[in-house]
């Protein structure tokens, strides 16, 4: 076995959630009378949590904290009804998870998506798989790229960071895994490109979920 555990990012790594996020984002903008963005622009808006998503899509860069809270609440209400409509695991992901679990590896999810939505997504899209931890962005825990969540998962797994592979699709993910002392795998099928993963010191960059298995088992 080449590692003992893996931590996965969610949006853009396990799940293609781009359209549902963009549709909810644009519906939020419409609700407040702001112009919409193309779906593809959300590849760069998503990744650092809901508050940052709102700061990036709302034209008034100086939105006050109270206003941001209102945007976040509205987005939350819209997304609560639609997070699963067009989202799905990327091709080969269910097989990858089955292969890693069958090999006896411990698996976890660490996302900057709000914690409740992260849990709903994992329960809905991967009902038959058991993850040691499923963490979204939680009150009182610094979001990625802070390694706090990743370090908490290492402890829950009873492993050391060097025994874990951290798999994600963005600079934030590579920074998180690297600063937690893990080997990082950047995935090319997600929201960002090869250069971003390389520039942020991905240990390996892969283009299929089967390659993740080959580095783990
Ligand atoms: O929703 C977000 O901001 C990001 O989620 P991720 O950390 O799973 O990519």
From TrEMBL:
Pathway(s) it belongs to: Organic acid metabolism; glycolate biosynthesis; glycolate from 2-phosphoglycolate: step 1/1
MF terms in GO: hydrolase activity
Enzyme Commission number, as recorded: 3.1.3.18
Keyword match NAD: no
Protein name (Swiss-Prot/TrEMBL): phosphoglycolate phosphatase
Family: Belongs to the HAD-like hydrolase superfamily. CbbY/CbbZ/Gph/YieH family.
A Pfam family assignment: HAD_2
Enzyme class, UniProt record, top EC level: hydrolase
Database matches in PANTHER family: PHOSPHOGLYCOLATE PHOSPHATASE (PTHR43434)
Catalysed reaction, written as an equation: 2-phosphoglycolate + H2O = glycolate + phosphate
UniProt keyword list: Hydrolase
Coiled-coil regions listed in the entry: none
């Amino acid at each position: 076995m080449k590692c003992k555990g893996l931590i996965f990012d969610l949006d853009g790594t396990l799940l293609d959630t781009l359209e549902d996020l963009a549709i909810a984002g644009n519906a939020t903008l419409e609700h407040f009378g702001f112009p919409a963005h193309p779906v593809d622009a959300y590849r760069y808006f998503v990744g650092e949590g809901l508050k940052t998503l709102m700061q990036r899509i709302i034209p008034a860069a100086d939105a006050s904290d109270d206003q941001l809270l209102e945007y976040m609440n509205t987005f939350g209400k819209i997304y609560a009804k639609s997070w699963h409509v067009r989202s799905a695991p990327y091709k080969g992901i269910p097989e990858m998870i089955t292969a890693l679990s069958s090999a006896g590896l411990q698996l976890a999810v660490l996302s900057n998506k709000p914690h409740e939505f992260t849990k709903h997504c994992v329960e809905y899209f991967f009902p038959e798989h058991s993850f040691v931890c499923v963490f979204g962005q939680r009150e009182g825990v610094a979001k990625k790229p802070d390694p706090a969540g990743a370090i908490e998962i290492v402890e829950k797994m009873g492993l050391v960071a060097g025994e874990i592979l951290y798999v994600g699709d963005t600079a934030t993910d590579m920074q998180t895994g690297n600063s937690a002392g893990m080997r990082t795998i950047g995935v090319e099928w997600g929201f960002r490109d090869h250069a971003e993963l390389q520039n942020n010191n991905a240990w390996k960059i892969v283009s299929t979920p089967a390659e993740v298995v080959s580095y783990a088992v």
